[in-house]
C-alpha cells in the first residue's frame, strides 16, 4: 500500500522538466562588458536571485528576448511580473531595486 | 493536581524547553550557513542575499504575521424529533392519569472564542478562505513537510468552545523554520471535544533536486496518550487462580465502585418462585432489578470508567524515530501539483512512558496481562498527500486532493476528486 502511494506521488516528479523561472525569482541578465553597470540584486529580500551572462547562456537570452544589457526581470511561477531594461547609457534606472522589491512585497504578502 | 501530575507537568515543560533550545540552535546554525553561500546551481551563478541573525527581527519573524481575536455564537445541536416520557402523577398512584413530560435534551447555545498570532504562507493554489483570520483556517502548509515560504512560520492559537453543552479548551501551537537545506518544526495540538492530544518536534536535512523536487531525512519526536493494545478491564476480568477460576468475577467490579447486590425471592401469581439479585448504588437507590439488567446498563459504564482510570495512571508516551520524506511542487496558472510523502522508519525508541504499555507491546497484552517472553514489535508510520488541479480549457477543469496518514493504530484519510464545467 505505502509503496503504491509513494510510486503514485513520485511519478509526477519525473514527468515535468525543471525551469529556472519557477517560484519567485529575480534574474539579472548581463555580460562581462557591462558588469560595472549591474545593480546589486543581493539587496533584494524574500526572493531567489540569479545572474546570467550572455557568453554562458546565449540560448536563454535569445529565448527571453533580451535586447538590452543589463536587464533585470522578476518572475513568478514562470510568469514575467516586471522587466526593467538599461537605457542607451547601459545604466538601469536608479529605482530598479525599489520597484522590484515593491512587486516582491506585494506577491509575498498575498501568500499570508 | 496531585504530586504525580505535577511531576509529569514539570517533566513535560522541561522536555519542551530542551526541544525549543535545540530547535533554536539548529536554526541559528542553518541561517549562519546562508551567509557563506554563493554557488552554482543548474549551471547558473546564483547569488544568495546576505543575512544576519538578530538583524531585522521584524522582517524575519513578525512581518506578514497577523494577530487575531475572534469568537462566534451558533444555534446548539437539536434533535429533529421531540422525546416525551410518562411520569407517575405526584398526587396519585401508578394507575392514575400520568404526567407527560418533554424529555428532549436541550443545550445552551454553542460558542467559540479564541485568540492567536499566525504567520503561515499559503501555497499558490490555495485561496484565502475568508477576508479575515479567525482561527478556523486549516492550511496545507500545516500538514505538508515543506513550506510555501522559506523562513519562520508559526501559529499560536488558543480557544475555548462550548458544543452541545460541554466546554472544551483547544490549542494549536506550530513553529517551523524552512531553509534550502533544512526543515525544523515543533507542533502541539489539543482538541478537547475528541480527546486528542499530540506533540511533535522534528529536524531534517533537506536536499533539493532541481527547483521542484526535494528529499529530506532526519529525526522526529512524537507523543501519544493512548496505551495501544492495553485493555485493563479485560485483564482484570480474566485473572484466574491455579484452578482456572476467575479471581475477579464480573460483578465484583460493581462492589469496587460502591454498588451492592441484594438477594431476593418472590412468588408470582402462578406460584413460581423467582429469585435474583437487585442492585443499589452507593446512595441506596435501586439501579437494576436483576444481575442481567445491571450488567447491561450500569456495568458497561463501570467498565469504561475503570479503563479510563487505569489509563490515566500511565504517563504520556514520547518516542523518537528516523524520518525520511520527499515533496514535489509545481504551480502554473493552468496546472498545479503538490505531492509529498513522509515515512517514519521502524526504529522507534521510547524516551518517556512505561515501555511495557508502549506501542512496541501493542500485540503482547492479553488474558493474564503482558505475555511472558514477548518481544518488542517495531512498526511503520507514513503519510502521503497530493493536491492537483488542471484547467484543461477555459471552461473545463479537474482537481484531485487527498491525504492519507497512518500513525500508530490511527488511520486518517480524506480525498476529493471532481471536475468543473463552466457554462
Descriptive labels:
heterodimer; A: 112 residues; alpha+beta; Glutaredoxin; four-stranded mixed beta sheet; 3 helices; 32% helix; B: Methyl-cpg-binding Protein 2, Chain A; three-stranded antiparallel beta sheet
Give an overview of the whole structure.
The complex is a heterodimer of chains A (112) and B (423). Chain A contains 3 helices and 4 strands, in the order αββαββα. Chain A is of the alpha+beta class. Chain A has a single domain, classed as Glutaredoxin (3-Layer(aba) Sandwich), CATH 3.40.30. The termini of chain A are far apart. The mean pLDDT of chain A is 86. Helices cover 17% and strands 43% of the residues of chain B. Chain B is built from 6 helices and 22 strands. In chain B, strands 3, 6, 7, 8, 9, 10, 11, 15, 16, 17, 20, 21 and 22 form a 13-stranded antiparallel beta sheet that branches. The interface between A and B is large, with 35 and 43 residues.
